[in-house]
Each structure stands twice: as structure tokens, then as C-alpha cells.
Amino acid sequence: FLFVHVQKTGGMTIDNSLTAALGDVRRIPEAHRHAPLDRLLQLEPGLADYWTAGFVRNPWARMLSWWRMVERFRDGAERGVERYLDHLSRNKFVAGIIENHPDFESFILEATAEHPRLRKPQVEFMNDTATGRSADFVGRQESLEDDLHTIYDHLGLEWTELRSVNIDPGRPDYRDVYTPVTRDRIAELFAADLAAYDYDF
Q: d(Cα 51, Cα 71) in Å, to the nearest integer?
């Protein structure tokens, strides 16, 4: 079994749950934890035979979640919270976003132009165009528990209560945050996701 972890899709909750349930889990040392399927198969071609799953999310909600994470790091660092200061000293990507993009509009309109990882469609995480290999199962953050049940059933695992992490209880509805311009920018950047996974605003 191979899990592809797309950013801001509930991946840590899924990873923690599956790691506990499976027991025998390993990481690919050369791969970033958010490595797409094509990179994983490039590093270890033998994984092409593994049953593969990952999760996706409505692009507008996903990008708001990403921005809210940046805000948490920024606000925590400004309060002098050690774990946020330590993280930003090591994570130049997030530190640069904080330094150069003070608000959500700048993040959506400008940071996405500067940083390829912010504009990579989720469908590209789930497919390896070189081999034609695609994830066998694509779950959705919006139905995370039901879809994770499907993975458990496929793997013959006994279901245990899900313990969610990285929850943002104060996050507003994404529809209340976007302007027409930022809404259109996300539609443009993630047109492939909208088509592949039938998401809309």
C-alpha cells in the first residue's frame, strides 16, 4: 500500500491513523513528505505494483486552509511562541510567504505565481504521466472518514476511532473570503482539479 500525501487535505490525520493501524510503515528518505506519485515511482519503481491512495480537497477551501496555516505561524511567531519561531527559522518557504505576502489576496494572486508548489494541481499528485499509473483510490477531505473507511476495508484493517489533528475551528466558510478576482485565479490555476474531481465554488 502506498499513500500519497497532498498538502492541506487532512493528510496528517490520515497518516497517523494508517500508521497506527498498519504498524509496518516506512518512509522514503529521499522523498519529501508531500512528494507526488511520479516522484515516488521515480525513486522506487517497484512501488508501481502497490495499491495506491491519496486525498484531494476543494481547491478554494484548500488554499484558504494553506493561508490560515501561514497566519498561525505568523501570529504565533509575533507572540514569541518558541515552536513557531523555531519552525520559521527552518522553513524558508513559509517564512518568505509571511515576509512578502501580508494578506490573503496577495497570497492567492502573487505567491501562487512565485511558488510552483502553491499552484500544482492535485490531479498531478495522483498521476504519473511517464508510466500512465494513477492512484487506485482518490478520497476527498470533505468525506474523509467515509473514504478512509474504504481504505481500511480494502486493506482488511479494523476501524478505530479517528483522531483528527491540525483542526482550524475558527476557519470561515471559504465562500465568504474570496473576491471575484481571487476566486477566478483559483479556478484558473486548478482547472484540472475542477474537471477531474468535479469541484465547484
A: 36
Q: Look up the pTM and report it.
A: 0.92
Residue 138 has pLDDT above 70, yes or no: yes
Block residue for cell numbers 511517464:
130
The model's confidence at residue 38, banded by pLDDT at 50, 70 and 90, is: very high
CB distance 148 to 17 below 8 Å: yes
Sign of CA dihedral 40, 168, 187, 197: positive
Is 59 in contact with 185 (CB distance < 8 Å)? no
pLDDT tens for 154-185 read: 999 999 888 887 667 778 999 999 999 999 99
- Residue 201 is placed in which grid cell? 465554488
**162 close to 18: Cβ distance less than 8 angstroms:** no
In sequence order, which residues have a C-beta less than 8 Å from that of residue 31 and are 6 or more positions away? 39, 40, 43
Query: If you search the block for the grid coordinates 490531479, which residue do you land on?
Result: 123
- Dist CA 164 CA 184 (whole Å): 31
DSSP string, 58-111: -HHHHHHHHHHHHHHHHHHHHTT-HHHHHHHHH-HHHHHHHHH--SHHHIIIII
